[in-house]
Design brief:
The chain has eight helices and 13 strands. By secondary structure, the protein is α+β, with helices and mostly antiparallel strands. It has two domains: 165 residues, no CATH class; 131 residues, TATA-Binding Protein (2-Layer Sandwich), CATH 3.30.310. An eight-stranded antiparallel beta barrel has the order 3-9-7-6-5-10-11-12, surrounded by four helices. 33% of the residues are buried.
């Protein structure tokens, strides 16, 4: 096991939620996404044009922050300089473990990748989501390459991220995310009904959240808008297989109450195959090499929390 425990692959707090879904949600099936993340799928409570299911994913990721703008520029300069060559030449010189990997840059359209709105109870209380590292996200602008890339006036892609678990002082975090497409007003109403059809209610991610977390259903409203400009890089081994991806996200956040705008940059690193003891060890080691080379620091907060801090909403 290379010194890793099963609890690092699926921490008990997250396993408890996945087990609850397996036991209670009708028609659950197991799947994996293109990144290797394990998924639970079920029929949604309301039909959507793309036939997207209800989904719960278990995700391992190194979430990092550059300490300043200089460090961000240095990282991006070396990433772009390394396109098409091995990492040992520019990005990670003299690194014996990862110097042989080759970098490629994902070509994307200009402009923001996505625009999201984060929901919470205004005037933060002990029931609020963002201070507890719970994120409820509505995606209002999408890009064609994205998996959940549909949106109509009433049916939007939604995401609910539960509190993550940090491994090794935060180098890698493990989290659960619900993804689904729904009419938000109908979703909230259904989750709170005492006389709802149980077969429908049990498939509702907001209702599931009330059974596994302290999750409010009254007073939720959009409090932050989050615009992401992303540069994405992949790393391939000698056989041409991609083993890691790295995102540099430049974020512009706006508080929807005060109008105040803030910005920051973060760096995410993930593997692209199923997590086991070996792949998790490799992800940790690669993230540590990037941290040491570019002054990156563990990011022990959600994007919604970083938005709230950058816009003064936490003050």
């Amino acid at each position: 096991m290379n010194g890793l425990s099963f609890d690092e692959i699926e921490p008990p707090a997250l396993r408890k939620v996945r087990d609850w879904v397996r036991l209670n949600v009708p028609g659950v099936t197991e799947a994996r996404d293109r990144r290797g993340y394990p998924l639970l799928h079920w029929e949604p409570t309301r039909h959507n044009d793309s036939n997207k299911p209800g989904e719960l994913s278990l995700e391992h990721e190194a979430r990092l922050l550059p300490p300043n703008q200089h460090a961000t520029h240095s990282l991006l300069e070396k990433l772009h300089l390394s396109e098409g060559v091995t990492l040992g030449k520019h990005l990670l010189p003299k690194n014996q473990d990862f110097g042989g990997l080759t970098l490629h840059r994902y070509q994307r359209d200009f402009g923001p990748q996505s625009v999201d709105r984060y929901y919470d109870i205004p005037n933060f209380s002990d029931q609020s989501l963002i201070p507890r590292m719970i994120t409820l996200r509505e995606r209002v602008k999408v890009s064609n390459f994205m998996t959940w890339n549909l949106a109509t006036e009433t049916m939007r892609p939604w995401n609910l991220e539960l509190p993550f678990v940090a491994l090794d002082n935060g180098i890698v975090t493990v989290r659960l995310e619900f993804n689904w497409v729904d009419n938000f007003a109908a979703c909230v109403e259904e989750a709170g009904l005492t006389n709802a059809d149980e077969q429908l209610q049990l498939r509702n991610p907001l209702y599931i959240a009330t059974q596994t977390e302290r999750f409010p259903l009254v007073g939720l409203m959009a409090v932050l808008e989050h615009t992401t400009f992303r540069e994405k890089f992949g790393f391939r081994d000698a056989s041409g297989n991609e083993v890691f991806v790295l995102n540099v996200d430049s974020v512009i956040a706006q508080c929807l109450k005060s109008g105040r705008i803030g910005s920051y940059t973060d760096v995410d690193i993930a593997g692209v195959k199923a997590i086991d003891s070996r792949s998790l060890s490799e992800l940790k080691a690669f993230a540590k090499a990037m941290m040491d080379g570019y002054e990156l620091q563990p990011n022990l907060a959600t994007k919604a929390w970083c938005d709230a801090q950058a816009t003064g909403l936490l003050s």
